[in-house]
Amino acid sequence: MALFFSRISKLSTACRVYNARFFSSLPESPYLLLSDETLGESSEGGRIVNHKLFDPRTEAIVKSREKTLPKELEGEAILGASQGWVVCMNKKDSSLNLTDLYKPWVVSSPRVMSLPCLGFDPRVTVKSRVSLSSSSPDEEDCTVTAKFNESHLSVCKPNCDSEWTHFQTPFPLLKASDLMYSKRDKALYFTCIKGLYMGSLDLGNNKLKYQELRFHNLPQIPEADWEMLDTCFMTKHFVESPSGELFFVKWYRKCFHIENNEREVEDIHSRTWSFMVFREDETRRGLCYTEDIGDLCIFLGNNEAFCLSASMYPGLEPNSIYFVAPGLGSYHLPSGTVRQYNPPGEHKPHRKPFWIHPTDD
Predict the structure, then answer these.
(1) Mean pLDDT taken over the chain
(2) Contact 82, 136 (CB under 8 A)
(3) In the record, which residues are listed under signal peptide (predicted)?
């Protein structure tokens, strides 16, 4: 596998009115899962459900088709999403399943693929991440990679493996966070604590490596603004464009609190403050700050981050980042403007808010 800096070169405001629409009249789009709704029971005894989703192109609420909830997914906990597929855990026995239940364009019965037993209890996990190497898990070499705890990565091929392979993180301070599969390199990338290092897992030879990140062309902003950013909570994300271009995103969220009359803190919440995007520069062997990603849109949530061409999905604003958790909104890179979307109260984002990638499978 080529290392990160020598990769193989094969190469805010109120919204519109939220009118619920039925999905059957709409083309594919990136959607945000908002809520589940039980409509009744099927003749086989399973629950009939549909999902309400947010369409960022039209800023409307969309209803999926009715589906029968597979019995294997009753009482499931969503661990992560990638390529439109979701990994769920049964709360009773901790078994894992891969499903396309949440794809609104699926017309037949939702599919469920059993995944191997982890060999440990994933319920200790606070935050899971999942990445698929293909939008079609039926492919023999499709690999599911997940972070079920902070100390190692877990990898399996659903069609080949009877158990997961676990990769221990060698350094306590370099714990894996978000995961991103690179179709260009056939490797998995992830960020590390403080965003100073990146990790790579070559899925061809299962070699885990780390490398220091180098940043160039940092933005020229006042010292006071840097100090403000230092007070923010920051997450780091790798994302690959449809053409194979790599970006590194820093997501800054600021904490606010509410005090009572005695000046005691009653509530704490956070709000998206800013983003910084860095583009891979192979000439300088590093990452260069940019405020221009052209026609691209980046989607961040509890899913594997993904990138789309805005011109392929009319209604999306190019040069923007669409985000969820906390809040739902978009960030326009050239202007630095945050726009908040506010669905009605009954349409709060799902308990595990994620964007559904508009794949064909």
Answers:
(1) 81
(2) no
(3) none
Residue in 63, 65, 61 with CA at minimum distance from that of residue 19: 61
- pTM attached to this predicted model: 0.86
Lowest pLDDT segment from 124-133, 175-184, 188-197, 205-214: 124-133
Query: How far apart (Å, rounded) are the C-alpha atoms in residues 342 and 183?
Result: 34
**Token pair for 16:** 């519109």
Could you tell me if 356 and 53 are in contact, meaning their C-beta atoms sit under 8 angstroms apart? yes
Q: What are phi and psi of 335, to 5 degrees?
A: -95, -15
Q: How far apart are CA 293 and CA 291, in angstroms?
A: 7
Domain presence at residue 5: no
Please provide the DSSP assignment of 248-311 as one string: EEEEEEEEEEEE-TT--EEEEEEEEEEEEEEEEETTTTEEEEES--TTEEEEESSB--EEEEGG
CATH number at residue 78: 2.120.10
Q: Phi and psi (nearest 5°) for 39? A: -105, -15
> How far is Cα 279 from Cα 296, in angstroms, rounded to an integer?
12
In terms of residue numbers, what domain contains 118? 17-356
144 inside domain: yes
Q: What domain count does the chain have? A: 1
In a domain, 186, yes or no: yes
CB-CB neighbours of 2 under 10 Å: 14
Q: How far apart are CA 209 and CA 212, in angstroms?
A: 11
Q: Look at residue 114 and tell me if it is in a domain.
A: yes
- CB under 8 Å to 108, separation ≥6 — which residues? none
Q: How far is CA 262 from the centre of its chain?
A: 40
The Cα 287–Cα 319 span in angstroms is 18
* 218-246: pLDDT as tens digits: 898 899 988 988 888 888 899 999 999 99
Percent share of the chain, pLDDT over 70: 80
